[in-house]
């Protein structure tokens, strides 16, 4: 007696693997440091706090701008985080503008308000 023919075995179907989550860390860092840089830049025009604030606000603004540009490059590559990178860039350039305007105003007032040495 012969045994009945068995159907061929199907290979097991692999389950679809979830895609790894892609995040843009540099854009996240830019959008976090941006408001901190603006907050520090807001203290630069103040009389005594400004001396201390300029030493923290300027490096924060520059770091925010660098991270924002790196975040834009990563966003072009992966398509994630462009809005955060742009927000970080706007905050960084705004903070840098406040710092540069304050320093320019301070030095222009200092240079042009000295009494003349006409005797």
Task: Walk me through the structure.
The chain has 119 residues and is an all-alpha fold. Helices cover 66% and strands 0% of the residues. It is built from 3 helices and no strands. It has helices at residues 25-42, 49-78, 82-112. It is rod-shaped, with a radius of gyration of 29 Å.
Write the SSE topology.
Layout: H1 25-42, H2 49-78, H3 82-112
Structure in a nutshell:
By secondary structure, this protein is an all-alpha fold. Helices cover 66% and strands 0% of the residues.
Termini separation: 132 Å
Order of helices and strands: HHH
Q: What's the pLDDT, averaged over the residues? A: 88
- Low-confidence parts: none
Structural class category: mainly alpha
Determine the strand fraction and express it as a percent band: under 5%
Helix amount = 55-70%
Cα gyration radius (Å): 29 Å
Mass-distribution shape: rod-shaped
Number of helices: 3
- Characterize the largest beta sheet: strand count, sense, and whether it forms a barrel: none
The counted number of beta strands is 0
Keywords:
0% strand; mainly alpha; single chain; rod-shaped; 119 residues
């Amino acid at each position: 007696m012969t045994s009945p023919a068995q159907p061929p075995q199907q290979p097991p179907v692999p389950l679809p693997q979830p895609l790894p989550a892609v995040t843009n860390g540099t854009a996240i860092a830019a959008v976090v440091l941006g408001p901190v840089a603006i907050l520090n830049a807001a203290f630069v025009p103040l009389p005594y706090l400004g001396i201390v604030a300029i030493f923290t606000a300027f490096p924060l603004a520059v770091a925010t701008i660098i991270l924002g540009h790196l975040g834009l490059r990563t966003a072009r590559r992966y398509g994630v985080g462009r809005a955060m990178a742009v927000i970080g860039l706007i905050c960084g350039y705004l903070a840098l503008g406040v710092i540069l305007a304050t320093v320019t105003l301070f030095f222009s007032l200092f240079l042009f308000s000295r009494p003349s040495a006409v005797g």
